[in-house]
Amino acid sequence: MEIEVKGGESEILGREGWGEAGCGSECSGCCCCFGESGRRIYGLQYHPEVTHSPKGMETLKHFLFDVCGVSADWKMEDLMEEEIKVINNTVAADEHVICALSGGVDSTVAATLVHKAIGDRLHCIFVDNGLLRYKEQERVMDTFERDLHLPVTCVDASEQFLSQLKGVVDPETKRKIIGKEFINIFDQFAHELEKKHGKKPAFLVQGTLYPDVIESCPPPGTDRTHSHTIKSHHNVGGLPKDMKLKLIEPLKLLFKDEVRELGRILNVPVGFLKRHPFPGPGLAVRVLGDVTQGNALEVLRQVDEIFIQSIRDAGLYDSIWQAFAVFLPVRSVGVQGDKRTHSHVVALRAVTSQDGMTADWFNFEHKFLDDVSRKICNSVQGVNRVVQDITSKPPSTIEWE
Ligand code: XMP
């Protein structure tokens, strides 16, 4: 490997000096580094930010505190106050803002923060797109209204979404259709607000997090043709280019644990903050293939509820980053009672993670899995096989799609 640092002598540290660092993946030779201590220039080629990287955090700390000399005097309270100032400087006193609440931690914390900054000039909307979990609408509306006092309009648009998704199997196409329908609904909502307040809302709040930004865009400065966008994710990839609303993304430099911390300061109920992440396209990425096939969504809701409730009953919910069920577009043979069946197969997925960028599959006890599987097959009509996903990320992703 040759490295040139113009105008000075560079020292190639190679793999020796950093022998225990590295991304921990099986590819060889991905950990390269160089340094020129005189000019304090260092280069690393691995992912120290990834939890699986041995000594990754140590490397980052060393770089920030010893090499760059910054001090760790940053508090979440300061960030909150700074963000409130930024929001107040961005949104003029007569301007209105809309926010789509998904029922997840990110959009809820983002909305609560913006509400603290501009009060009832924030108008939230919660859309039931027909792709939500069991009783989700009732559960989240209760928290928004009773605990957080957020101004929220609830719109039932299930028919609209599901008719557009009929027959669609490609996950990216599903995402785009869902994104487009959301935008149509927001436009309509904005139009109604304009009639009411005499002025169109000028901004849209999004709960975009830092991992969303990273996974949705090629790294800054890279050639788009040569780098991979992992997904046309959520918030970032899914908005139309001609959208008139300007974005407010107060969480876009934060990781999930930091958002939870901010939520705690903003008095979002702890139970709510600990909710597992749920993807924007909802059950559309958990029913593989056509979401409108048979009663797939209903079957999935019931299976998922049994799985999650069992996890809660076993006291495991907070030890897991994300758990959910997946509906597979295949049938398998079984025997129930004295009948041969040809029914649905569902998969259970539970992972631990720090930020969703890497994940390990969660190792349940045998008895837990046995109980859950029996309960699902006994109580959900049309399911005769339950499988468990035992892959980590990488090589898999968390969602199946
Ligand atoms: P993956 O499947 O990429 O997921 O390993 C990482 C985290 O992102 C969530 N996820 C999504 N969230 N829209 C979202 O809002 C999406 O299309 C989407 N796909 C994945 C996933 O649930 C996990 O927390």
Structure description:
This protein has helices at residues 56-67, 76-90, 105-118, 136-147, 158-165, 171-197, 210-216, 234-237, 256-265, 270-273, 296-313, 366-379; strands spanning 11-12, 32-36, 41-45, 97-101, 122-128, 152-156, 203-205, 246-248, 322-336, 339-352, 360-361, 383-388. By secondary structure, it is an alpha/beta fold. The chain folds into 3 domains: 5-67, no CATH class; 76-273, HUPs (Rossmann fold, 3-Layer(aba) Sandwich); 286-388, GMP Synthetase, Chain A, domain 3 (2-Layer Sandwich). α3 (105-118) packs across α9. It starts with 10 loop residues before the first strand and ends in a 13-residue tail after the last strand. It binds xanthosine-5'-monophosphate.
Q: Uncertain spans, ≥5 residues at pLDDT below 50?
A: 1-10, 14-28, 224-237
Main-sheet strand order equals: 6-5-4-7-8
Radius of gyration: 24 Å
- What is the count of distinct domains? 3
CATH-level-2 architecture of the largest domain: 3-Layer(aba) Sandwich
Coarse shape:
globular
Main beta sheet, described? Answer: 5 strands, parallel
Number of helices: 12
| Run of helices and strands | EEEHHEHEHEHHEHHEHHHEEEHE
CATH-assigned fold name of the largest domain? Rossmann fold
EC number: 6.3.5.2
GO molecular function: ATP binding; GMP synthase activity
Pfam family, one: GATase
Pathway: Purine metabolism; GMP biosynthesis; GMP from XMP (L-Gln route): step 1/1
